[in-house]
Specification:
Helix content: 10-25%
Order of helices and strands: EEEEHEHHEHEEHH
Shape: globular
Radius of gyration: 22 Å
Number of strands: 8
Strand content: 5-15%
Mean pLDDT: 91
């Protein structure tokens, strides 16, 4: 009998994956802070600062000319506002509380919320406000909505219970907007029922691939609710 040769096992090559070095960040003039291994700083992902020259004015009905957004989202935003105006419960009441915020403005917003005497921690502040360089607002794809009928609920949890808040939850995803930070989110940041990012209604939609690319990790690891598929 001819012995059957035993095949030599194929050992896959060892692939060395380089470690990504996350550099410390200078924050609020209070020294250097080390992001986590995944690059997040106090649970917030890093985002690029879209230059003002690349942005456009949001529809005037959102209130004033201070709201700047990425042009890719303008058509869907217009469709969303038209649909809201067709609903008697919310017609003419949606407002923009905050749109694009530059990294410089985010620095003022974040650092200004820490006590002048040095009181308060970065961790406490980051629960409600992203550190500079780590805010979705810097991308130009985000709007903090408010309502003209309940100004006291602007950027407050009670916005969710307003007619505008309920309408957005039921309808915004149909226009490519999703709630970045739902209640009880595993990203461990504050529930923000007013904060909606645009990712387009479909991957093939003009401009959507870029927006979805920016938010890809956040959307995969910490899905929006309600979210856009």
């Amino acid at each position: 009998m001819v012995p059957i040769a035993t095949p030599t096992p194929v050992v896959p090559p060892v692939v060395l994956v380089p470690r990504v070095t996350v550099q410390p960040v200078a924050l609020c003039g209070r020294g250097m802070v080390q992001p986590g291994a995944d690059g997040r700083l106090f649970n917030h992902f890093a985002y690029p600062d879209t230059p003002a020259s690349a942005l456009v004015d949001a529809p005037a009905s959102l209130g004033g000319g201070s709201c700047k957004v990425h042009p890719a989202m303008l058509v869907d935003l217009g469709r969303l506002l038209a649909a809201a105006d067709a609903d008697p419960a919310v017609a003419g009441t949606l407002r923009a509380v905050s749109c694009h915020r530059s990294e410089a403005l985010q620095r003022q917003t974040f650092c200004g919320g820490i006590g002048r005497d040095g009181s308060g921690s970065f961790t406490e502040r980051a629960w409600a406000s992203a550190p500079p360089g780590h805010s979705e607002h810097a991308t130009g794809y985000v709007i903090d909505f408010g309502t003209s009928t309940s100004r006291a609920c602007d950027a407050e949890a009670c916005f969710a219970a307003t007619p505008a808040g309920r309408w957005l939850r039921a309808n915004a995803a149909s226009f490519g907007f999703e709630m970045s930070f739902p209640a009880g989110n595993r990203q461990q940041v504050k529930w923000e029922p007013w904060h909606w990012r645009w990712v387009g209604t479909a991957t093939a939609q003009a401009g959507a691939p870029v927006a979805r690319g920016l938010f890809a990790e956040a959307r995969t690891r910490f899905p929006a609710e309600p979210g856009v598929r």
